[in-house]
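Collaborator request, handled under Task 6.
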Amino acid sequence: MRKRRNQLPMLPILIGILLVALLLIYLKFFLFNSPTQAEDIVEKFYQHEQKGNFSDSWELFHPYMKERFTKSSFIQDRAHVFIGHFGADTFSYEISKPVEFDKWKPEDGQETFGSGYKMVVTQKYAGKYGKFNFQQEVYVVKHKGEWAILWDYNSK
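Structure tokens returned to the collaborator:
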């Protein structure tokens, strides 16, 4: 009489491998894809701004932006303009879908960025002068492996 060897059933193993592969594909294309990550950094920036946490929002800027504003002047200006002048304690906002670009520069005479994403952010305020919207183009590029925010200073 022959002894039967214990063999692992192949079907459950194949199903397990297939599920792991599908999970990895999902993570790559839906959670860790570039447009999602770029949108996440813009979301994080405006969440900080909503809370009046201008120090943390400044940290998300590309070094080009940090050269334009020192941290202390950015914090002072943001609080002064949005809270002081507009009389609004906070705001809501909407972020458009990211649109990929392959060549862009923040202003004439500056470095050209090879690729990234552009979004339009609409901030909605209700202040002492009534309700109003503030709309701004926001660009996101990679800097040293991290997403960073830039604003457009082109005259066109």
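The cover message to the collaborator said: "The mean pLDDT is 86. The radius of gyration is 23 Å. Please let us know whether this matches your experimental observations."
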